[in-house]
Amino acid sequence: MRNPTAADAVSELAELVLPWLPPPDLAAAASASRAMRAAASAVTARRAADSARGLEAFPAPFVNPIDSQPYSYFIYTPFSLIPSAASFHAQPWGCAWSRTPGPTWPRPDLGLPLAGCSCARGECGGAACACADAEAEAADASGAGMASLSECGDGCACGPSCENRRTQRGVTVRLRVLRQLKKGWALHAAEVIHRGQFVCEYAGEFLTTEEARRRHRLYDELASVGKLSPALLVIREHLPSGRVCMRVNIDATKVGNVARFINHSCDGGNLRPILVRSSGSLLPRLCLFAARDIVDGEELAFSYGDAKPNPKGLPCFCESSCCPGVLPAEET
Ligand SMILES: [Zn+2]
Ligand SMILES: [Zn+2]
Ligand SMILES: [Zn+2]
Fold it and tell me: Which residues cross the membrane (predicted)?
């Protein structure tokens, strides 16, 4: 066995430190020495190989035939969360050591007294289950606002393998993030996805309306000079009367999952958004299901909302026949 050299010490240190760095700092570190440059390019390659950084069942690689950008930098969370002082500002990405794949369980507690069902094993979702939602399909059929679903949650007696938790296991379909000429990054299916299948949650930070307004103004400014692609969604849940009853703001701009790469389509695209409530959780999660059969390689898209197109908004490249040419913009 040879003696460890100074270069070995550098690359060992680099392994610990470099995965924590955002791209500009990574580039700066890479310029320090040849050993650092080699370590940084290994980190870059591992980041490009999996946008989900080992936190989902399958890697979702970046594929860029357009330009030299190897990946898009953000903080990954498999599930929406409430930003707090403890919210990450940094997360290792591109480590040589690998994590156990699959979503973290249990999910971060949303801080409510736990309510739930006490079904016997395998009986959840049936007529006797307190978490089964008889109204979900009715609300959907009436076309009043966004459809919703109820699932078992942290207060239920059943465990993670319960049938009534199909959106809680993270992303279980194969996906890739493809760079396109006009749209930038876009999420594509990397396998056949069947109609009705759960694809992914639109994960991000749950914001108060006040904070959403503040960030909207900031993002508009940055987006207008091309410095940012905002991914802040405002979902309004309507009562049958048509009056707004609840507003959910999810910001995936800095913290999110693969869904932050899904582009808007004015015709609704191939994904159907559904608000999913888990027993014991205050906030519904926005989940995306296949609206029809999706072929391997197809781009995934959904409608960001029914807001009127903003004449001063960002251009829309969805190419559907009803597209007004600009993205819808929420009045916040
Ligand atoms: Zn259950
Ligand atoms: Zn149950
Ligand atoms: Zn339950």
Answer: none
Same domain, 12 and 65: no
Tens digit of pLDDT for each residue in 45-102?
A: 999 999 999 889 999 999 999 999 999 999 999 888 888 755 566 788 998 876 655 4
> Strand runs (DSSP E) across 181-312, as ranges?
184-189, 198-201, 205-207, 232-238, 244-251, 255-256, 263-264, 271-278, 285-290, 301-302
What domain range is 40 assigned to? 1-49
Summary count for the chain: helices (H), strands (E)? 5, 14
Distance 120 CA to ligand 3 centre (A): 10
The answer to whether residues 160 and 21 belong to one domain is no
- Tell me which ligand sits closest to the C-alpha of residue 164: 1
Question: Does one domain contain both 41 and 85?
Answer: no
Q: What is the CATH number of the domain that holds 263?
A: 2.170.270.10
Domains: count for the chain: 2
- Residues around the ion ligand 1 (C-beta < 5 A): 124, 152, 156, 158, 162, 164
Which numbered ligand comes closest to the C-alpha of 160? 1
